[in-house]
Amino acid sequence: MASVSRTAGNIFSGVNTNTDLGSLVSIAGAQPMCFGILLKNGSGDPTNIDAEGEADETIDIVLRTILGGGTGANAGSGTISYFQVETGTPWQISVMVERSSWTSTTLQTTLRALGSAVGTNSKDVSGTTVTDVGFKLALS
Fold first, then answer.
1. What pLDDT is stored for residue 140 in this prediction?
2. Taking the alpha carbons of 56, 59, 60, 64 in that order, is the dihedral positive or negative?
């Protein structure tokens, strides 16, 4: 197996630009971002999405929005590498996106703007919160 001797730089040089200790390192792709999305109504109460996994229902619409939604200053897009939907309170959607222009602020604003009648079952997501949660492997 061929090897390259490192004569300068750190372990991240040549892998991802703008990567540092504590950041997620992607060897095979673009620098990913991870968001935790807590779907909430306008009063800040969790929105039940246990039965929202079909086409044109809430989860589908949220994921399609992440792939390429929003307008103006809140426009964003990204490739979803992974996502996970937690059933039961707090009904969180976790996503890892690559090549994304989203920030937690723009994504939160855009998801809230979907309103109080999202999808075929008219779910209220107008109080949704989004955080940039980072990513951790094998923590217990």
1. 45
2. positive
